[in-house]
Specification:
Strand content: 5-15%
Number of strands: 9
Number of helices: 11
Radius of gyration: 22 Å
Order of helices and strands: HHHHHHEEEHEHHEHEEEEH
Strand order of the largest sheet: 4-3-5-6-9
CATH topology of the largest domain: Rossmann fold
Distance between the termini: 42 Å
CATH architecture of the largest domain: 3-Layer(aba) Sandwich
Number of domains: 2
Shape: elongated
CATH class of the largest domain: Alpha Beta
């Protein structure tokens, strides 16, 4: 059984909101957004969802799927878990396509469209990037930031790069934060090349102490950042304010 279909069947929107409230996450959004927030921000597994259900609801699930009802809550959870995950051995459920009740295939969470993809050098630009993401999302601007939006269990795997690359392609704008050493970051160069190959709109913000004359050697070209309109900023709040003014 498809994970998302199971959660949509057995959890009302109010219950999903209650679950999000219990882990101090925002409770606004569609049912699918609430499910994704629990799965990928709160890191909830199927076991966590089942554990949140009350005993009577678990019994109802067992009866509906012709599973044994008797025993302890843990026994019912185990039977349901085994039923739902019966076909997961053939598929990585984190990456399976989400099938809506209509049968229409929709995109998985990591391939959804974002307004902005933030590109940065981690050791010099992370604080700027995290503060910027938080501020933009408060204004309902969707933002992709790898360290937050890619599940931690993908770290060091091919899935991590696939997720990041798809998110660049699905984002409307590519926002580059210029901080010390960006021209030597291998991953940042890959991100820029993908954005260039997909004709993304570049927004370039430069920390005020840096020279605008920075050349980045990409796989197929040399890119002089001075050819782009650069907006200088002198701190996290200044960066957020100037990015917001562009929307």
């Amino acid at each position: 059984m498809n994970f998302r279909k199971f959660i949509r069947t057995w959890f009302y929107k109010k219950e999903l909101k209650d679950a999000l409230y219990s882990v101090d996450l925002k409770v606004s959004g569609t049912v699918d957004e609430l499910i994704d927030r629990l799965r990928f921000e709160a890191k909830w597994s199927l076991h966590d969802f089942l554990d949140f259900m009350n005993n009577e609801d678990l019994k109802e699930v067992c009866r509906y799927h012709d599973l044994i009802v008797g025993g302890r809550k843990e026994d019912r959870m185990k039977r349901i878990y085994e039923f739902v995950t019966a076909d997961w051995k053939k598929h990585d459920w984190e990456r399976e396509e989400m099938i809506q009740e209509s049968g229409e295939v929709t995109e998985p969470y990591w391939a959804r469209c974002y307004e902005v993809f933030i590109a940065y050098r981690r050791d010099t630009g992370l604080d700027f990037a995290k503060h910027l993401k938080s501020g933009l999302e408060r204004e309902n601007i969707s933002v992709f930031l790898d360290i937050i939006d890619i599940p931690k269990e993908f770290k060091g795997k091919q899935t991590w790069m696939e997720t990041r690359n798809k998110s660049i392609k699905k984002s409307k704008k590519f926002l580059l934060i210029m901080t010390n050493g960006i021209e030597t970051s291998r991953e940042l160069k890959k991100e820029i090349q993908i954005a260039r190959d997909n004709n993304k709109t570049f927004l370039v913000y430069r920390y005020h102490t840096l020279s605008p004359q920075i050349t980045i050697v990409l796989e197929r070209e040399r890119m002089n950042l001075n050819d782009f309109q650069q907006i200088s900023f002198d701190g996290k709040e200044d960066l957020l304010r100037k990015v917001l003014s562009a929307f």
